[in-house]
């Protein structure tokens, strides 16, 4: 029995313990469609379990006067105050958010939001208050065991083992975490503590378990996920762990530090060698003799490619941070609100910055995270939130350092006898915090990393609450309610508990079960879409469209995405109906999320669909939508691309040319802007300039010979009587036939153009080819050939 924790009459402690074990097993949860995206399902179950534990906690205090006896050192009070301050600043940032509802709940894609962040803080505090000292080791052993299972799944995915059960990945598998970066940071948070336990334990079997787990985690981080952020964090944490290892004898410590310094020098040389020699070429030239060697060579090659300095310097993150800095200067106090990073980013987005359109890991320009915790926190909740966050980890690090080198903690026997924390474990936690912050300088958190990091915070609070010599402490209890508020609320105790229970049921149903059910239907719709079943996908999602939940905007946006995929596969009449449906959904989204740039761009694009179908009167509406988008993101080229099409479709070619010029000026490397300028120039009869623009578009990477591009040119020239344009049109249809020779419409159109220029022989050949491909054209072809000369 410890001095810190006296026996209590808590008969429901086993419920808390089961709850914590279930929560720590959640990183394994990844079962679509119910629990997809992965973080969404994990977060929902986490909220349900933790809300039940919170209710039991409050119920015990209110009904039975249950005592949770804990010693609060001065350091403990400061850490808890910092957690409370962090909670309050995030709450204020949410209240004054530019999109309050989104700041509260986020969406399934990231599973963030203030509510989830608040639950992480409560999780850390409850772990500190409830878990007994003797059970913390069980908690960590279980977390490590889950980490092993997650790692093994990643390895199975990497090498295609049990591919019918686990989806194989050629490179960088995500395991059950959903993303290789998130997987790496999750394992990084477990690594150093696992290693510390291996050093601490005297039992051979447990030592093997910990050291095996540590090596497995390191292998997955480096060779399977190949995540640069985690590798840099691992290297930093390892240097700290080894160089400042708490040896008892200074002489041993000095020798060890010299060895580590020498190894560090060799490591720098190795990094230099990798960056100056082609290791992949070396592997290829020496041709590994076995399949295993080939696989290992492939993994090694992948790692070295990712840590090349030239690849790091060209990373899009650097450009993203420049935009983030501008956004932060605009709202430094409370930021834009949790989950609202994109609002600030869009406002200062600059397409001319290097590689900014290649968001890390994806080829899109829609950033919702800075991939840097300094910007992510400060832009979401303001600089005060960032300061508190850094103070929290800084103070924990300092308190662990004090405890590590306290005279009472330097003797193993004394540690065991007095239940003092082992210095190596304290050192491992410090190394973890350092590695975690360094890794998150290049990345950001997911559910799994939040879970382990806040569990570590709770564990650290428990450790520093020990009775350290020279540190004042106070015995704190959650005293029986009847002794504190006997005269005031004792008679209302039952009512309060009942209301808390009603609130628990309401919270679980409205904000957890109902949303996860709706998201399940969305995921089923998406899977039907992947099977090319547009009708089924639209019908599936339409059934839940009238549902009301925290996912309303997310649901409508997914509906619009399905419409976008299905638009080209339907008849013209259906296309009009779908475009009108999309506009209706997006207008509702724009009402509730007026700062979301993508809503306005999509509204403009779908209005263009209706204009293209003949409703030219919608020009002003499209103009309005793109103007709103420009207000929110003045330099986003996607806006101007849609705007050009509006003016082009409504035959306002001069305005189309002006927007195309603005698009080019924002970033001349975007080939689509040059292509659209070329189309406008053709309409303005500027043929030489159009040809020049087409060549530039091709040089900038735009596929000017694709089927879509050729169809656009064909549409421009259709109906022309100009001999030069007709000859151009003939070449366009010839190229289209080369791309898709089985398309009867291309042959029929080419026949019509041949007839227009008087080439009746070729016109007849193409007409008969169209008839061969589509016999239903017999009557049309006969009429077409009727007036041909003999």
Describe the structure.
Helix 2 crosses helix 5, helix 26 runs antiparallel to helix 27 and helix 32 packs antiparallel against helix 33. The protein has 36 helices and 2 strands. It has 3 domains: 396 residues, no CATH class; 135 residues, Serine Threonine Protein Phosphatase 5, Tetratricopeptide repeat (Alpha Horseshoe); 79 residues, Serine Threonine Protein Phosphatase 5, Tetratricopeptide repeat, CATH 1.25.40. The protein has 790 residues and is mainly alpha-helical. The chain has a two-stranded antiparallel sheet with strand order 1-2. The N and C termini lie far apart (110 Å).
List the helices and strands and how they pair.
Layout (H helix, E strand, L loop, with lengths): L12 H12 L13 H27 L4 E5 H22 L4 H6 L8 H17 L2 H27 L20 H21 L3 H22 L2 H16 L6 H27 L2 H8 L4 H16 L2 H5 L2 H15 L10 H8 L24 H9 L1 H22 L7 H7 L4 H18 L6 H18 L8 E5 L3 H4 L8 H38 L3 H9 L9 H15 L5 H21 L4 H16 L6 H14 L4 H13 L3 H14 L4 H13 L3 H13 L7 H11 L5 H17 L4 H14 L2 H14 L4 H9 L4
Antiparallel strand pairs: 1-2
How would you describe this structure in keywords?
elongated; single chain; mainly alpha; Serine Threonine Protein Phosphatase 5, Tetratricopeptide repeat; 1% strand; 3 domains; 36 helices; 790 residues; two-stranded antiparallel ribbon
């Amino acid at each position: 029995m410890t001095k810190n924790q006296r026996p209590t009459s808590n008969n429901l402690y086993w419920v808390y313990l089961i709850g914590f074990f279930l929560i720590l097993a959640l990183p394994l949860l990844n079962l679509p469609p119910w629990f997809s995206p992965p973080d969404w399902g994990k977060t929902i179950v986490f909220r349900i379990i933790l809300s039940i534990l919170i209710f039991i906690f409050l119920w015990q205090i209110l009904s039975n006067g249950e005592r949770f006896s804990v010693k609060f050192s001065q350091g403990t009070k400061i850490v808890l105050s910092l957690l409370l301050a962090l909670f309050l600043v995030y709450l204020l940032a949410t209240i004054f958010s530019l999109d309050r509802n989104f700041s509260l709940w986020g969406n399934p894609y990231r599973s963030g939001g203030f509510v989830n962040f608040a639950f992480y803080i409560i999780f850390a505090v409850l772990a500190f208050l409830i878990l007994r000292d003797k059970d913390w080791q069980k908690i960590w052993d279980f977390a490590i065991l889950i980490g092993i299972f997650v790692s093994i799944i990643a390895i199975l995915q990497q090498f295609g083992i049990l591919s019918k059960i686990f989806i194989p990945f050629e490179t960088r598998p995500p395991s059950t975490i959903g993303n290789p970066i998130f997987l790496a940071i999750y394992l990084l948070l477990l690594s150093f503590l696992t290693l510390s336990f291996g050093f601490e334990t005297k039992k051979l079997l447990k030592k093997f378990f910990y050291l095996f787990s540590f090596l497995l985690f390191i292998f997955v981080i480096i060779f399977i996920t190949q995540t640069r952020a985690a590798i840099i964090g691992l290297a930093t944490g390892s240097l700290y762990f080894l160089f400042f290892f708490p040896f008892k004898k200074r002489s041993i410590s000095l020798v060890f530090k010299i060895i580590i310094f020498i190894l560090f020098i060799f490591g720098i040389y190795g990094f230099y060698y990798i960056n100056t020699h082609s290791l992949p070429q070396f592997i290829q030239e020496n041709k590994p003799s076995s399949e295993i060697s080939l696989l290992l060579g492939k993994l090694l090659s992948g790692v070295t490619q990712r840590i090349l300095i030239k690849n790091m310097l060209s990373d899009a993150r650097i450009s993203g941070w420049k935009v983030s800095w501008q956004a932060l200067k605009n709202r430094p106090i409370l930021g834009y609100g949790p989950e609202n990073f994109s609002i600030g980013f869009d406002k200062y987005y600059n397409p001319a910055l290097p590689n900014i359109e290649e968001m890390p890991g994806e080829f899109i320009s829609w950033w919702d995270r800075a991939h840097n915790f300094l910007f992510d926190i400060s832009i979401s909740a303001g600089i005060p939130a960032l300061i508190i966050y850094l103070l929290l980890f800084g103070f924990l690090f300092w308190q662990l350092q004090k405890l590590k080198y306290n005279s009472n903690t330097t003797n193993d026997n004394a540690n065991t006898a007095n239940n003092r924390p082992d210095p190596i474990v304290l050192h491992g936690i410090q190394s973890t915090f350092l590695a975690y912050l360094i890794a998150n300088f290049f990345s950001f958190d997911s559910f799994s990393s939040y879970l382990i990091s806040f569990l570590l915070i709770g564990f650290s609070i428990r450790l520093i609450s020990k009775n350290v010599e020279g540190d004042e402490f106070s015995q704190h209890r959650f005293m029986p309610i009847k002794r504190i508020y006997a005269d005031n609320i004792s008679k209302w105790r039952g009512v309060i508990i009942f209301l808390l229970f009603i609130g628990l049921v309401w919270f679980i149903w409205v904000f957890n079960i109902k949303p996860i059910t709706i998201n399940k239907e969305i995921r089923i719709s998406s899977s039907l879409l992947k099977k090319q079943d547009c009708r089924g996908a639209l019908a599936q999602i339409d059934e839940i469209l009238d549902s009301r939940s925290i996912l309303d905007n997310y649901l409508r946006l997914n509906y619009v995405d399905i419409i976008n995929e299905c638009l080209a596969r339907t008849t013209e009449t259906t296309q009009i109906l779908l475009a009108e449906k999309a506009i209706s959904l997006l207008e509702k989204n724009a009402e509730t999320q007026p700062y979301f740039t993508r809503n306005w761009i999509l509204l403009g694009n779908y209005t263009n669909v209706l204009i293209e179908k003949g409703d030219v009167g919608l020009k002003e509406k499209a103009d309005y939508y793109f103007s709103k988008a420009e207000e929110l993101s003045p330099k986003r080229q996607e806006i101007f691309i849609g705007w050009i099409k509006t003016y082009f479709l409504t035959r306002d070619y001069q305005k189309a040319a002006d927007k195309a010029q603005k698009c080019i000026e924002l970033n001349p490397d975007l080939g689509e802007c040059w292509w659209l300028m070329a189309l406008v120039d053709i309409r303005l009869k500027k043929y030489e300039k159009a040809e020049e623009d087409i060549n530039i578009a091709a040089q900038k990477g735009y596929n000017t010979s694709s089927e879509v591009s050729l169809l656009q040119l064909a549409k421009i020239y259709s109906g022309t009587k100009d001999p030069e344009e007709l000859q151009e049109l003939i070449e366009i249809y010839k190229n289209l036939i080369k791309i898709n020779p089985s398309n009867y419409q291309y042959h029929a159109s080419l026949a019509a153009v041949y007839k227009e220029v008087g080439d009746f022989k070729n016109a007849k050949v193409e007409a008969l080819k169209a008839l061969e491909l589509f016999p239903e054209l017999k009557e049309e072809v006969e009429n077409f050939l009727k007036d041909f000369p003999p």
